[in-house]
Write a structure and sequence with these properties.
By secondary structure, the chain is mainly beta. It has two domains: 2-92, Sandwich (Immunoglobulin-like); 118-718, Beta Barrel (Maltoporin, Chain A). It has a 22-stranded antiparallel beta barrel. A six-stranded mixed β-sheet has the order 8-9-15-16-13-14. Strands 3-2-5-6 form a four-stranded antiparallel β-sheet, with no helix packed on it. It is globular, with a radius of gyration of 25 Å. The termini are far apart.
């Protein structure tokens, strides 16, 4: 009861301070800075500046100092003493000075201003762990799970709201990515040091980005040439024989034109068989990638162009020569262009055009089976957006899109070719009322020859009764086109027979969610509590059935029987100067009909917990990070009744990771340890001693495959000069 009264008093005090602070963030040349972070000192409450540098933030009674930060610029702190607009001009960074740290902003930022529930994993948060690539970027995040899909290929999958990553729309700077062939191994294609941050939104997202988002959206933001340091490099090595090099360089060719080059190389020099089953615990991977991007910007016109190239080789399987082998070669190329024209500054009227092309080739060997495939994709999105009046009450966004995908596959001797051409049209309306309500309503219509016309409605509502409380509601529909072998060819690391029902129908689901965020003042600090509940109900789902037969995998549509309940609570605060802590608990109830029974999805924990803490010393020279992950038990696929080769369930387990970072003037050295307790799943491969038998299966993965791992890294950056 005492805690309740403290909570109630905090909300009432915050309500008395309900007012808006407005301002504008400029660079050294008085150009608007888009996406600058503006947040109250010693809190996680913040907003981002708009396309013209403007910002609007609720006043808080727990702090009267605003911190404004932007990549490549010195952060500034301003004292709020009056209500008139504030003009903040940031200076570019010249060197990494040592400054006293009296308060820290969490690297995981929960947005209050957006109608869609959104979190940002900032670059500083990414640096709290090894973060070699995108798949390793969520270790300190309470919402996204990453796990291996099998014990042979090294493929990883994410889970959000209790469902696998195929229901999450993956985008790179608002361009759809890692669809089709990229969905299996694509999480390893984005080096961690190339990223400026990651935006995670839950529930169905904006219709302007397409129809595919069912459980959420993950948007990767890369470093920008106009803002990045002239040069930076990251060297990494681990005790398991992995070595990695990342480097990027940017230059400003003219006042308006800049370019940037990214380079990545990694290689595993050792193979490991710590459980002595004859199979490599994880494959040896060799990967090389390049990314060159260009950016032009003046007052009314912006343009971006980029090209990426990647080659990857994966080798796994039995360690003995001339035995069961897994060998996967991948070649990938991406090209994109973006254009934006501002037509009216006061109304923020603009038009934009995004185009993207992808070529992806995969040649793979899984024991005695071969799978080769090519993907050719094109994407176009044209957007017009504007306020309807000089006020910010009404905002509209409308546009046209086009997606075209061609897949050529050869599975052993079976050759197939599939094409999807999907034009679409969309409209979205945003209503702002009294600085408390935001209503975002959108609808889009798409058509292709496989599924004819399909309509995607979505609605998001945000209400802030006081500045310490943010309430959200969302409901919307999403679709996706199933491609069994393209998205699941890693399951060929098993001798189960594939039984695919045809024709497969388009997957469709409704997602409904509520979210409440409370900022509770305690002393001169703020405790953030975020609670959420999401329910996903499938009208039609592609079910991957491991339960009906122990030696088969069935792929078929299930109508109206699959669903997922997901509930989460998250608490974070700075408990002392420089010391931040976050704790979270999540409950998953994901079910579908397999084996003729409505039952929990196998190989997934129902309960998940996370506690992560970070401490940075007063001069910012040392940083200490530790993370604990609790994974509850769950269900295994139904074993054979006569000859059971695995248990019906798996038990709960914990993992611990830690890292220490020493900061210098223009560099930092970090050393860490993953899986401190050395816990791994025992006997992850069924019938490993006889990979030619029909019981061989490397896909029964519920726990970690890596044992304890030590790593050491060096980051160096050459800062910008005035």
């Amino acid at each position: 009861m005492k805690t309740f009264y403290i909570f109630l008093i905090g909300l009432l005090v915050s309500a008395s301070m309900h007012s808006q602070i407005i301002g504008k963030v400029l660079g050294e040349n008085k150009e608007p800075l888009i996406g600058a972070n503006i947040y109250w000192e010693n809190t996680n409450y913040g907003v981002l500046s708009s396309i013209d540098g403007n910002f609007e933030i609720e006043k808080m009674n727990t702090s009267d100092r605003l911190i404004i930060s932007y990549l490549g610029y010195k952060s500034d702190t301003i004292q709020i003493t009056y209500s008139s607009p504030y003009i903040v001009q940031l200076a570019q960074v010249t060197e990494l000075d040592e400054v006293e740290v009296s308060g820290r902003k969490s690297g995981l930022v929960t947005f209050r201003a957006t109608p869609i529930q959104t979190q940002e994993i900032s670059y500083s948060e990414l640096c709290r762990a090894a973060c070699c690539n995108l798949s390793e970027s969520f270790e300190t995040n309470p919402s996204v799970d990453v796990s291996y899909t099998d014990a042979a290929t090294g493929a990883k999958q994410i889970r959000l709201l209790g469902l696998s990553g195929i229901y999450v729309q993956m985008i790179n700077e608002n361009i759809p990515s890692f669809r089709g062939l990229g969905s299996t191994y694509g999480l390893s294609y984005v080096p961690g040091t190339w990223m400026d941050g990651i935006l995670i939104s839950k529930g169905t997202s904006s219709v302007s980005n397409g129809y595919e988002s069912i459980t959420g959206q993950i948007n990767v933001e890369y470093k920008k040439p106009q803002l990045a340091d002239p040069f930076s490099v990251n060297l990494f090595g681990s005790s398991d024989g992995r070595v990695e090099l990342n480097a990027d360089a940017s230059t400003k060719l003219t006042k308006n034109l800049s370019t940037m080059l990214f380079v990545h190389a990694d290689k595993d020099f050792q193979h490991h068989d710590k459980n002595n089953d004859g199979f490599a615990d994880y494959p040896q991977v060799e990967q090389y990638s390049l990314f060159n991007r260009w950016q032009y910007a003046n007052k009314q016109y912006t343009a971006q162009f980029g090209v990426k190239g990647l080659y990857e080789n994966r080798m796994g399987g039995q360690i003995a020569p001339n035995s069961y082998a897994i060998h996967i070669d991948t070649w990938r190329a991406d090209v994109f262009m973006k254009h934006g024209i501002e037509l009216n500054e006061e109304k923020e009227t603009s038009i934009g055009l995004i185009t993207n092309g992808v070529f992806h080739r995969q040649e793979s060997l899984y024991g005695a089976q071969t799978y080769d495939a090519s993907q050719y994709s094109f994407y176009l999105n044209a957007i017009l957006q504007s306020h309807l009046t000089d006020e910010e009450t009404h905002f509209i966004k409308t546009g046209l899109s086009m997606e075209a995908d061609l897949y050529e596959e050869k599975w052993n001797t079976q050759i197939t070719e599939t094409d999807y051409i999907t034009p679409g049209i969309f409209g979205e309306y945003t209503l702002k009322l009294a600085d408390k309500w935001i209503v975002l309503a959108g609808i889009r219509a798409d058509y292709n020859k496989q599924y004819a016309l399909f309509v995607t409605p979505r609605l998001h509502i945000k209400y802030m009764p006081i500045n310490a409380v943010t309430l959200r509601f969302s409901i919307g529909k999403g679709y996706r086109s199933p491609n069994v072998m393209i998205e699941n060819n890693n399951l060929l690391a098993s001798n189960r027979e594939f039984v695919i029902s045809t024709p497969l129908q388009q997957e469709a689901a409704w997602n409904t969610g509520v979210n409440a965020v409370f900022d509770i003042p305690i002393g001169y600090r703020t405790v953030m509590i975020s609670t959420e509940y999401y329910y996903t109900l499938f009208d039609n789902q592609l079910v991957i059935d491991f339960d009906s037969f122990a030696n088969k995998i069935l792929f078929y549509n299930a109508l109206g029987t699959s669903y997922a309940h997901n509930a989460q609570i998250e608490v974070s605060t700075e408990i002392a100067d420089g010391l931040t802590i976050l704790g979270a608990y999540r409950y998953n109830d994901t079910k579908s009909v397999t084996g003729g029974v409505l039952q929990l999805k196998p190989l997934m924990s129902m309960h998940r917990g996370l506690i992560t803490a970070s401490y940075k010393t007063s001069l910012g020279r040392w940083q200490y990070d530790i993370t604990s992950q609790l994974n509850g038990g769950g269900r295994m696929p139904t074993p054979d009744a006569i000859n059971p080769l695995w248990n019906k369930t798996f038990s709960a387990y914990q993992q611990y990771n830690a890292q220490v970072t020493r900061y210098f003037k223009n560099a930092s050295v970090y050393v860490g340890i993953e899986n401190i307790t050395n816990f791994t799943q025992s006997n992850p491969i069924i019938s490993a001693s006889n990979p030619q038998s029909d019981t061989f299966d490397a896909t029964m993965i519920w726990g970690p495959l890596h044992g304890r791992k030590f790593y050491l890294g060096l980051r160096y950056n050459l800062p910008k000069q005035n």
